[in-house]
Specification:
heterodimer; A: 299 residues; alpha+beta; 2 domains; 3-stranded mixed β-sheet; elongated; B: 160 residues; 6-stranded mixed β-sheet; 4 helices; 6 strands; 18% strand
């Protein structure tokens, strides 16, 4: 675990959006900014612990609140963009980029403790507008200086913290924005279909792949089904029964379940345990669709 | 008579100016190091490949010793030629990013390495080479060093 008491180095940087391209650069900062960044990272860890401890696994299909405590292994495909930033070596240095803050979509801090453990903290730049003063001492240093006026507003905490093991998420929205999750999940549809298909050999996935490639919500369900291994050991009869009970239109053709194009979303919801039926009133079964749900583990 | 006075007076003055200029650049460099230390302007450099550029010292010595050659500075034309040559040397040092070259570093046991980042399939990893002034005699690939930043491309590791 990263030790905030023995921080050996703190780097500050920003993510820049230039047309369709994004790049990350280091901006030199003085000790006062480094201290502020370290305090922000500590505050982020404390805020996470207050929400939920231990964290819940991140599920792309879930509709989250503004502040949560979620976790994703660093080598998960959905954390690819964060992993790239965390593991990038010798990022370019350029203090001049601060002269145009409109291009900045995020800012980050990279820290190293005396045991050579690394921590990357990232924040989506929503309040990162305003006049930025740099090069206060031009001849000998071009470091940014922390000045009493609000010329460069840092937030009170970060959206996420990444270490060598995984990504701890405080604000899922910030993580999804900085991590380009929408694009990553849509790009991962063919690979996810392939993996889910191995568990559900009795389902025809052609229409599902076509639909999920164009609809990010369906792609999120698919990513969640794959990540949580929700397709393994599913019983075909039980699946057909649940589809029938929840109004999902499917056909059993030559031993394969074929999903009608209008029912692809609901079929994915069934696999992601978001469509279910209960019968608390005898003879009056009710079907429900859950935008948010969490599994109750056996006590 | 007037020409002779000009000739004998100009050469020591010029040499003095050059020596002062050299001392001044050294002071600025050491001042920059002290400021970097005070501001804790550190960063981690990861070594991909490292080249020892001790031969750059020859360039440094050549450039520094050039004005001490017995060039006749008695006429304005010779003086202008010498100043042009000196300006050219300063420009080259600046343009080729050789401002870190300093005989004092070598005397204190520091070496200057040109460090390339490792090749790691990470699209965000920097591609530019950096200059690292370090007391280490060799740098191994994959080594991680926390060094003070003197400029965007020049870093300094303190002797422990």
């Amino acid at each position: 675990m990263f030790d905030f008491k023995t921080v050996a180095s703190v780097e500050f940087g920003v993510g820049l959006e230039e047309g369709d391209e994004q790049r990350f650069v280091i901006v030199p900062v003085d000790q006062s900014v480094q201290t502020a960044l370290r305090e922000m990272a500590v505050a982020t860890g404390e805020a996470m612990s207050e929400v939920d401890d231990p964290p819940r696994p991140y599920e792309p299909s879930q509709k989250y609140g503004g502040v949560e405590h979620l976790y994703l292994p660093l080598h998960d495909g959905m954390a690819a963009q964060i992993r790239y930033l965390h593991e990038a070596n010798n990022l370019p240095v350029n203090g001049k980029v601060m002269s145009n803050p409109a291009n900045i979509f995020c800012y980050f801090a990279r820290m190293i403790d005396t045991n050579k453990r690394h921590l990357t903290a990232i924040r989506r730049a929503t309040t990162f507008k305003g006049i930025v003063k740099s090069r206060l001492v031009q001849f000998t240093t071009d470091s940014l200086k922390l000045v009493p006026d609000t010329v460069f507003k840092l937030d009170s905490d970060f959206d996420l913290l990444a270490d060598d093991e995984g990504v701890s998420i405080l604000r899922p929205n910030g993580f999804e924005f900085v991590g380009h999750l929408k694009e990553a999940i849509l790009a991962a549809v063919p690979a996810n279909i392939k993996l889910v298909q191995q568990d559900l050999s009795f389902v025809e996935f052609t229409s599902i792949q076509e639909y999920a490639s164009q609809h990010s919500r369906a792609a999120r369900y698919l990513a969640s089904i794959r990540a949580q291994k929700e397709a393994s050991n599913i019983d075909k009869i039980a699946l057909l029964r649940l589809c029938e009970n929840t109004g999902v239109k499917v056909q059993d053709i030559k031993g394969k379940i074929v999903v009608e194009p209008t029912s692809v979303m609901d079929f994915l919801r069934v696999l992601d345990r978001r469509l279910y039926r209960i019968e608390l009133v005898k003879g009056l079964p009710e079907s429900f669709r859950a935008a948010n749900r969490s599994k109750i583990e056996k006590q | 008579m007037g020409d002779q006075r000009q000739q004998t007076g100009a050469r020591p003055l010029l040499a003095q100016l050059l020596r002062d200029n050299d001392r001044c650049s050294e002071r600025v460099l050491w001042l920059r190091i002290r400021i970097a230390q005070k501001l804790q302007e550190t960063r981690e450099l990861v070594i991909g490949a490292a080249e020892d550029h001790r031969d750059h010292l020859l360039v440094y010595l050549f450039a520094i010793l050039l004005p001490f050659y017995p060039i006749d500075t008695g006429t304005q034309r010779d003086l202008a030629a010498l100043l042009s040559a000196l300006a050219f040397v300063v420009f080259l040092f600046w343009h080729l990013n050789l401002h870190y070259m300093n005989i004092v570093f070598a005397m204190r046991g520091y070496r200057v390495f040109t460090v390339s980042p490792p090749e790691d399939n990470n699209p965000l990893t920097g591609r530019a080479s950096q200059v690292l002034i370090t007391p280490r005699v060799a740098l191994a690939s994959g080594e991680r060093i926390i060094a003070y930043r003197l400029s965007d491309t020049v870093y300094f590791e303190v002797k422990k």
